[in-house]
Design goal:
With 92 residues, the protein is an all-alpha fold. The protein is built from 5 helices and no strands.
Length: 92
């Protein structure tokens, strides 16, 4: 990420400095969604929307998050759904 882009993004995810913690947080969010009665497809759809927000507004805190951001930015909407689905399965 370019320096100017870093200055524009929100450092809101700064507490997520660890890839394992990031995955655990996503797993917890999936469990909460299921507990609220959401289907896995609904959770994945929400995840895709959150991914759009994160890719444009939040600074990646780890190299892995930077890779995900770059992949998300290059993907078309269908590919983003696939990425969201893969991340969902990876942390579930």
């Amino acid at each position: 990420m370019k320096t100017a882009e870093k200055e524009k993004c929100i450092e809101a995810m700064d507490f997520m400095k660890d890839w394992d913690q990031w995955r655990a947080t996503l797993k917890q969010a999936i469990e909460q969604g299921r507990g609220a009665g959401l289907t896995d497809m609904e959770i994945q759809s929400i995840a895709a929307n959150v991914g759009d927000y994160l890719a444009t507004k939040v600074c990646p805190a780890t190299p892995e998050e930077e890779l995900l951001r770059e992949m998300w930015s290059e993907a078309d909407p269908g590919e983003r759904k696939v990425l969201a689905s893969l991340i969902f399965r990876m942390v579930d």
